[in-house]
Automatic annotation (TrEMBL):
Gene3D superfamilies: NAD(P)-binding Rossmann-like Domain. This is SDR family oxidoreductase. It holds the Pfam family adh_short_C2. Belongs to the short-chain dehydrogenases/reductases (SDR) family. InterPro entries: NAD(P)-bd_dom_sf, SDR_fam. It comes from the Bacteria. It comes from Streptomyces misionensis. Keywords: Oxidoreductase. The keyword Oxidoreductase applies. One of its GO terms (molecular function) is oxidoreductase activity, acting on the CH-OH group of donors, NAD or NADP as acceptor. Transmembrane segments: none annotated.
Length: 252
């Protein structure tokens, strides 16, 4: 298997895109550590593949809880080879409604946790001379969307991806981001909508302006992840890979 013996840590792994990442990494032979604020145990039990599987509950916006996860991973596996920073929150936060508390929560989950996990696991990757960090950005950064806190956080994820790539490139560690388009996950469908179009309308409109006219599914992102963590991608770093059926080409 391509990832035999590698340890992968995935945040936001209980459902949605993060769970699809776990499924793919496990199927490709990695030991998978699924981290989520909700208990990921049910999903972890259903993962296939020969590697070890572990579910850990952690609010990644809390540095002490991140430390606990890092300690557990290092005790059990010695290092993390593949870090997938996927967890994200996306409340509606336009200029009239965003509060500083909400802004900080979005930054803590979507941005700061990436720094905490990367700082903790990069030394082991450097020492091994091999590592993969894959962050979850978003195509929203290229649109006219008004979710201030979310859009800013994902723009920062893209910049942080490039900065980490600059830091780690000489050590055999690549750092890239996958930027999904619109994926009808529980997180997306469950967003509170007080006005504006329904989730179904947003999905229909987005699909209509994609080049590839089908809904995106989490496995689309899993396929991209499998490539970025493989040795075939060892000359690719600091990149934002838009996996969106071609929607960003339209700027829609
Ligand atoms: P999702 O269905 O909401 O899944 C995200 C998971 O992360 C949930 O299980 C969530 O737990 C967990 N989580 C939230 N806050 C956390 C925290 N503080 N600590 C640990 N885990 C936490 O979301 P998704 O649609 O799969 O999105 C995954 C990533 O893709 C996010 O970074 C998102 O911004 C990005 N993205 C998604 C889309 C899309 O259209 N879906 C598009 C572009 C980018 P709870 O159940 O408690 O919330």
């Amino acid at each position: 298997m391509a990832l035999d013996g590698k340890t992968a840590v995935v945040t936001g792994a209980a459902r949605g895109i993060g769970y699809a990442y776990c499924r793919r990494l496990a199927a490709d032979g990695a030991h998978v550590v699924a981290v989520d604020i909700e208990d990921p145990a049910d999903g972890v039990r259903q993962l296939t593949g020969t590697g070890d599987k572990l579910g850990l509950v952690c609010d990644i916006s809390e540095p002490a809880q991140v430390d606990t996860v890092v300690g557990t991973v290092l005790d059990r596996y010695g290092r993390c080879d593949i870090l997938v920073n996927n967890a994200g929150v996306f409340p509606f936060t336009d200029l009239d409604h965003v509060t500083i508390e909400l802004w900080r929560t979005v930054q803590a989950v979507n941005v700061e946790a990436i720094l905490l996990f990367a700082q903790a696991f990069a030394p082991g990757m450097r020492a091994a001379g091999w590592g993969r960090i894959v962050n979850t950005g978003s195509g929203i950064t290229l649109t006219q969307n008004r979710d201030l806190a979310y859009l800013t956080s994902k723009g920062t994820v893209h910049a942080l991806t490039r900065a980490l790539a600059n830091e780690l490139g000489e050590s055999g560690v690549t750092v890239n981001a996958i930027a999904p388009g619109l994926v009808a996950t529980e997180g997306f469908l469950g967003r509170a909508r007080t006005n504006g179009p329904s989730a179904e309308e947003v999905i229909a409109r987005t699909t209509a302006v994609q080049t590839i006219k089908r809904h995106s599914v989490p496995a689309d992102l899993g396929n991209a992840l499998a490539f970025l963590v493989s040795d075939d991608a060892d000359f690719i770093t600091g990149q934002i890979l838009h996996v969106d059926g071609g929607v960003t080409r339209t700027g829609a």
